[in-house]
Amino acid sequence: MRGRRCTPQMLDESFESRSATVEGMDEIINEFLVESYESLDRLDGDLLALEDAPDDRDRLASIFRTVHTIKGTSGFLALPKLERVAHVGENLLVPLRDGELRLNQEIADSLLEMVDAIRQILSSLEASGDEGGDDFATLVERLQNALHAEAAAEDASAETKSATEEDAGDDAIEPEQVAEAADVADESATPPETPTPAVAPEAKKENTPAAKAATKPASSGSEGSERSQSVADSTVRIDVCLLDRLMNLVGELVLARNQIVQFSSSAEDAAMIAASQRLNLVTTELQEGVMKTRMQPIRNAWNKLPRVVRDLSLSCGKKVDVQMEGADTELDKTILEAIKDPLTHIVRNSVDHGIEAPDVRVEAGKPETGVLLLRAFHEGGQVNIEIVDDGGGISSERVRAKAVEKGMVTPEQADSMTDRELTNLILLPGFSTAQQVTNVSGRGVGMDVVKTNIERIGGTLEIQSKPGNGTTLRIKIPLTLAIVPALIVTTGGEKYAIPQVSLLELVRLDGQRANDEIEHIHDVPVHRLRGNLLPLVYLDEQLGLRSPRQRHEPRESVNIVVLQAEDRQFGLVVDSITDTQEIVVKPLGQHLKAISAYAGATIMGDGTVSLILDVIGIAQKSSVLAEHRDRSLKNDRAAAATATEDTESLLLIDSAQGTRAAIRLSSVARLEEFAVSDIEQTGQSHVVQYRGQILPLISMDGHFGGFDSDPSQPTESIHTVVYNHNGESVGVVVGKIVDIVRHANSVSEESSGRSVIQQRVTEMVDLESLVSRSLASQGAW
Amino acid sequence: MQTENVSSGGTKQSSGTNQSNRELKSYCTFRVDDLLFGVEVREVQEVIRSHPTTSIPLAPALVSGLMNLRGQIVSALDLRHALGLPSEENTDLMNVVIRSSEGPISLLVNEIGDVVEVEDTRYEPLPETLQSEQRELLRGAFKLDDRLLLILDTARVTRVAA
Fold this sequence. Notes:
The structure holds two protein chains of two kinds. Chain A is α+β, with helices and mostly antiparallel strands. Chain A has 28 helices and 29 strands. Chain B is mostly beta strands. Helix content of chain B is 12%, strand content 43%. Chain A binds chain B through residues 2-3, 5-8, 11-12, 15, 248-249, 251-252, 492, 494, 543-545, 586, 588-592, 595, 597-598, 601, 603, 607-611, and chain B through 23, 25, 40, 52-60, 62-63, 66-68, 71-73, 75, 102-103, 105, 120, 123, 125-126, 132, 135-136, 139-140, 158, 161-162.
């Protein structure tokens, strides 16, 4: 389209304003689309429920009504393909509803396919304005065959009966069609002659398809209609755009309120203070109220999952029962939209990988049908969503083997990882343990994307798995994204907002400390925060506001915002820290979306616009988060190793003489207590029988409790630290075990072998050299 | 609906009134550098005086900043940059806020002109010799009595920014 020549004709075309009637039609079609989508979602659910209870007449009647409504309206709107598909579907539904035909899987499949076809036509209608190229001839044929195959089996009289029933069915819904027509005509602002004016206002008032069905004076399914009537009476359908605008306005109001409250705090006028307090209260309530309007039950995101599970379990030959708990749990519409895809993915994974095939399940002594439980509940201002399956669980052995095979971890690392750590490896990119790559999952993309998507909306994902008993995935997400608490910082003269979910702490280094406590590894600045190296990232450098700082450039005071990005921490250096505030998150336009450093923008109390920093984006940009996250894991583990060297757990002991000593807890296998009477002597060495083995004992100071020393303090037992030396256990006898402490050690302490712990000079004991020394002196082994 | 904001100088018709069925279109005109541009009135949401903007580090040079338009965050586009014109140190730019598929977008211009009505007969496509940079953003030109009115393709301007 580049450099396209514009001709007057083209100009005319683009300028052509559409006539009022066309616009009216658009509105009707839109209305039809909205209603039909809703009905289709319900259809899916109804059809699935029917498979369990094929004789549920009320449900059949409701399905019939829905399909009939779609058929009727599509006829009115001149959508022949849609009408035809819906028509044959309806024909098949008539004998089903009347009990002449029993629903079997084949019919259910064709009906579900019909629902898909209708959906396809609708989306094509929405996208391009026409019904699309596919005419669904095979589907139509199949639906017809399903009807005729059954009908042929019936005797002739039943057939005639069925035909008359069908006619009767059509007659029964005539008024509804009229109501529809009236409704539609009314909206298009060209009121034609309405044959039944009494019905028209009613139909117009009640917009939901269910309510439309309810106006129908048919006898079948009257319970259903009563219920939907009451729902229709108490609810109003509102455009989401309007809600979004309300939300925005409330956001503005919150900001204005913040300012007024601030001003009035310095005011002395009592009336002014009272008024501002009232404003404060009302605004808070209004904010909560408007937030509530955007809340939707999580059921809306779950609705399509049973269908996904059904199709998937059929195709992998598994039996899966979907259960839901807490489907009424509400969360913000935006979040609901954002978790739909991740949820679908997780559910597919659970069915594909989690739940075993029926024969495997029976072998394992489980019922043939697997259970997939979706559970949602509120907890501490967050929504928890759990996807629980009772399948085989995640085999940590297979994960370990796979992780090593893919080079994500070294065999040594893998051996030292806990089951929980191993389980969480599956959240890394490129990981899949499926033995077989199916078209559903197992291609090694997925869980990492799921995790990223959930983290993007400020949520977390956790996996727990019990081998043989199933897997639980837990998603924790905030209730809303619209208004979030944030830290306001200033850099380069502009204010930026940092969402507080990622904020860990603030560190300020004044004067000389700024120069002393920022160290460099090559040119990368780091700060030692309680012994851990914290990589520093300068915000102004990241935003391209200045060139990278030189290593020896003198610094004045430094403000460090310590942030959490995924599993990593880093310090963001800013010019100054201004405030914390509730901010209203607004999305950025298309032309700024590509900048990963920003999550959005907000309007500050003074009316200026500020950018919201995307912590993960900045971490990635500054390479705090490596691009290839499988590599980052190794770094992470290495970092963890250095971190434990910096601060470590020490076992404090008192020797028999009362000198204080400390042993690294990491070198201790077990602590044991032996009765003095159990100690035996072989040659020069003392031993004790321990777990069916002979455990040589060595003493830190040559004493063995009451055994050979200090008769004034007879002891009946000795405390022993069991240490593994070249695969053999050695017991080191200590006087008294005092405590276990965490201690940060420095190089100077290392070299001197002494340290001050709990205000006492403590000897650092190196068990390894102690053991090898004394074993050598004993000449053992 | 907010066209009244636009008509700072009142509506005037650029040619003798033609009573035929030929459709007259209204264009909101503005000056960038010494060029006269027009945007169809119904695409314009409003025109406002210079407005404080927040600069966006790392953003494409075309996007000069973000502004707060009654609670809505609007990107301000530097039309000079888009048109490949030399940049100037002028802080007193006017904003022509146009509607786009992604919400309002503000175009920074030097001066706001009148709303003019022109007939299609005065329209002519762009000459082949026009540089490609500007060509992409323009639909064509109307030959007014005293000068040319270049019609800006707002959809493309916002797309270039994207």
